[in-house]
Design a protein that fits this description.
This protein is an alpha+beta fold. It has helices at residues 2-15, 31-36, 47-67, 113-124, 174-190, 247-252, 264-276, and strands spanning 19-24, 74-81, 89-96, 102-110, 139-140, 197-205, 210-218, 224-234, 280-289, 296-305, 309-318, 322-331, 340-348, 351-360, 369-379, 394-408, 411-427, 430-445. The protein has 4 domains: 15-96, Roll (Ubiquitin-like (UB roll)); 102-218, no CATH class; 224-305, membrane protein fhac (Ubiquitin-like (UB roll)); 309-445, Beta Barrel (Porin). The chain has 7 helices and 18 strands. The longest helix has 21 residues, at 47-67. It is extended. Mean pLDDT is 83; it is low at 5-17, 113-121, 123-150 and 453-457.
Length: 457
């Protein structure tokens, strides 16, 4: 026991950082967030390694502040030796945050070629920030208004400024602009402009401590549906073979008629349904303009199936029922229908089980899963069973029918109806039989960290 504790203590001491990091002068950002962007220790503890570690820490701290609107932040650091060990150092980072800039004007405008190229050039001049991500592409302006030529609204749906996360008068946040770009892609994509491209032009104005933002939207042309072409393959190394899912079934899930406008929301529902079946490694949709003069487009549905079936066996021991063996088989795409069949059995000294089940992940083409399972159990774990033959004893039969509805990414609703029949031996001459029907409704809540707005969970 002492040896185990010693090993754990050595592992813990070798994993922790010997640099004591102190951050002071902060108020706009939390200490936890600041410490997250600082590497816990340098790669090398020589002079060059320590200098590189300190410069990187200053850069990433300043980058985090600028992403939250502190464009005049200043970071100073100091390293002091703490002990005889080469790794014993005290690192102090003193932060002078400066004023926090606010959004001035936020506009959604049509993108012309010159603006798109200018925004791309500005972005290309920036260095990389934390985790290799480019820092915010900005141009520093003296305070002059943006050119009138950029003020034309883009063709397509109107955008209410109140729907944007970046609003005049609110503190600047880089993640608010990311949310807005995603919102604009969805807004125009759902209006039929699935080829929409969104850039942004950011002007930082030190004189007024404000930031002006123009979202440059190029809607592209609307995509008009003509036909769907399906390429369904199997997973490597069998990716040269066609998948087993019926093309007619896949095509039936594409809810477009010829001449309909292709929309991002409809495409997303199709991808969600196919991924929900659990039969595919990936699902992708692309479009291509037809060669004729109709102006319509073909949709290409690319899917890759994973291995649909599995067979498992095991040897086990249970304190109540003794040693035993079990076999389970499952196929999640029977006859290319995307439906699932499963069966299995287990045989132990005092218990035997046989079960079979069916699952339909897309009931009637909707995002609702239906499952039905039948289970048979025999028990010989009581003293009265010792005088009976094998497979004699108490008996249980159960049929469970279940509907699962993923209402949203954070809420899943399950309704279960179970019919159960039991037969128990009381004496050699008497049995006790029961029949019960149970209804169970369950809601599963999932708390998901948002990759864009992590501070909101």
């Amino acid at each position: 026991m002492k040896r185990l504790l010693l090993i754990l203590a050595l592992l813990f001491s070798s994993a922790r950082s010997d640099i004591n990091i102190v951050v002071q002068g902060y108020s706009g950002l939390s200490k936890r967030k600041l410490l997250e962007v600082i590497s816990p220790e340098p790669e090398e503890y020589d002079q060059d390694g320590l200098r590189s570690w300190r410069e990187d820490a200053e850069f990433y701290l300043a980058d985090s502040y600028r992403a939250s609107g502190y464009f005049e932040v200043q970071i100073k650091s100091e390293l002091k030796k703490r002990g005889a060990d080469p790794k014993d150092w005290d690192a102090t980072f003193t932060i002078n945050e400066g004023p926090r800039y606010i959004f001035d004007s936020v506009r959604v405008v049509g993108a012309d070629l010159n603006q798109r190229e200018s925004a791309a050039a500005d972005s290309g001049k920036q260095t990389k920030g934390a985790a290799g991500a480019p820092t915010l592409p900005v141009t520093v302006d003296s305070g002059a208004a943006l050119p009138d030529t950029s003020a034309r609204p883009p063709p397509g749906p109107a955008v209410d400024p109140g729907d944007l996360a970046a609003r005049p008068g609110k503190p600047f946040r880089d993640d608010a602009m990311l949310v807005d770009r995603r919102f604009l892609l969805r807004r125009f994509g759902n209006a039929g402009f699935v080829r929409v491209e969104v850039d942004d032009k950011v002007d930082v104005r030190p004189n007024t401590k404000t930031v002006a933002v123009d979202y440059l939207v190029d809607p592209g042309r609307p995509v008009i549906f003509d036909t769907v072409l399906i390429r369904n393959t199997r997973a490597p190394p069998m990716d040269t073979m066609a998948g087993i899912t019926k093309e007619g079934m896949l095509a039936s899930l594409v809810r477009y008629d010829r001449g309909d406008t292709v929309r991002a929301s409809s495409n997303d529902k199709l991808v969600e349904k196919l991924q929900y079946t659990g039969a595919f490694n990936y699902v992708r949709i692309k479009d291509s303009l037809m060669a004729d003069s109709s102006g319509r487009s073909a949709l290409f549905l690319y899917t890759e199936e994973h291995v649909p079936g599995n067979l498992r066996g095991s040897i086990f021991y249970e304190t109540q029922y003794g040693p035993g063996v079990s076999v389970d088989a499952r196929h999640s795409n029977v006859a290319g229908s995307l439906n699932e069949l499963r069966t299995g059995f287990s045989i132990a000294k005092d218990r035997q089980t046989l079960y079979g089940g069916y699952g339909s992940p897309l009931t009637l083409g909707y995002l609702i899963r239906f499952d039905d399972d039948i289970t048979f159990d025999w028990f010989q774990d009581k003293p009265i069973h010792d005088s009976l033959g094998f497979f004699r004893g108490d008996f249980r039969w159960a049929n469970s029918s279940r509907l699962t509805w993923p209402w949203s990414y954070w809420l899943r609703l399950v309704g279960d109806a179970e019919l159960e029949a039991t037969s128990r031996i009381i004496t050699l001459d008497s049995l006790e039989r029961d029949l019960s029907l149970n209804f169970i409704q369950t809601a599963f809540l999932t708390f998901v960290n948002q990759p864009i707005l992590r501070h909101r969970g």
